[in-house]
UniProtKB/TrEMBL annotation:
The organism's taxonomic lineage, starting at the top: Archaea, Nitrososphaerota, Nitrososphaeria, Nitrososphaerales, Nitrososphaeraceae
Residues binding substrate: D24, F25, N26, R39, H62, L63, G64, R65, R124, R157
Annotated protein name in UniProt: Phosphoglycerate kinase
Catalyzed reactions per annotation: (2R)-3-phosphoglycerate + ATP = (2R)-3-phospho-glyceroyl phosphate + ADP
The species this protein was found in: Candidatus Nitrososphaera evergladensis SR1
Principal place of residence: cytoplasm
Amino acid sequence: MALRTLTDLDDKKFNGKRVFVRVDFNVSVSNGTVGEDYRIRMTIPTIEYLTKRGAKVILASHLGRPDGRDDDYTLAPVAKRLSEIVGSRPGIKVRFAHDCVGQPVEDEIGRMNNGDILLLENLRFYKEEEANDLKFCKKLASLADIYVNDAFSTSHRKHASTYGMAKLVDARLAGFNMRKEVEYLSMMKDNPIKPFKVVVGGVKIKDKIGALEHLLLKADKVIIGGAAAYTFLKAKGFKTGKSLIDNEHLPWVSKALASYGDKIMLPTDHVAAISPADTSITMVKGDIPDGMAGFDIGSETIERYSTEVSGTNGAGMIFWNGPMGMFEVRAFANGTVNIAKSMALAYWRGAKTLIGGGDTLEAMKKSGVAENEVSHVSTGGGATLRYLAGDEMPGVSVLNGQ
Ligand code: 3PG
Ligand code: MG
């Protein structure tokens, strides 16, 4: 179903209106400074569209998982970064409200001029946000003439700001980032360009099973790396030494191998060591010796994976989620760096490339690949995997009147 988005509402209807925009500014903050600000930058087209049309833009987000009000989780550093990004535009000023509901916030909104931006304090300072509490939903909804959701990465949550309040506002629309995410991911889920290849790494298999079940059906090749690969290799009877194994999901992995073994690519050699701190690494083929763990894919595997990703059989579509090894340690970063570079090469050769999930953007940047060398970087971690699994996304369906 097509999403109702900002451009579906008559341009003039935004003028002077309080437009409540749910964004996902859940970014990393350390010592009061925002780290990667990709999620903030992705909301700028929506914010600018609204300010240019004379809306009073009220931004709301969560940050982290605080247990009630906790200054360690204030959105103040995000307000600062947002002002730095939009501040150069004449007349645009970002203000920060020290709460997200209540009289002082209402007063602050009452003082807003058309085109102003106000960022509310962390929604999760109220337990009612995650509980989707009706009274809290009503309080939030009372701040809004129009509701916009531009936070794809939280749309798997049925919270007050992503779901409950939206149902109480007649005019509810998807922002541009939400639309872009849903367009890319739904194309990949339902109608991928062929050949369609998937690269999956990272540690946890559990979070990826739903997405993998769907992707194994649709993809031509599923390339596995990271710690996830050792569980697959164990299921095939290889020795995996001390490598991280997800024993609980071994039965699922065995079934996947039995049904889709011809599509699944696994590492054949590894960078092994006694521990991540051990710099005397050993390159091993096949079995990993007792007392050692695999921390990266080996050079023969890199060669095979890179060739598959960068494409010798025409441009198609490639999705990458999760690093190939413990890339935070330079000695184990080679697999991830090469996959990132191959993704960029595939893009330059005409493939549609998508990356998604938590630390994959960080891994890509550490590998020297820029954001403009990939067709789309999803802002979502959990949400992206849930969407691809075909799970219900309350924050999306509510925009379509459900
Ligand atoms: C994320 O970072 O995945 C989203 O912002 C959702 O956060 P949550 O997992 O704490 O709900
Ligand atoms: Mg998450």
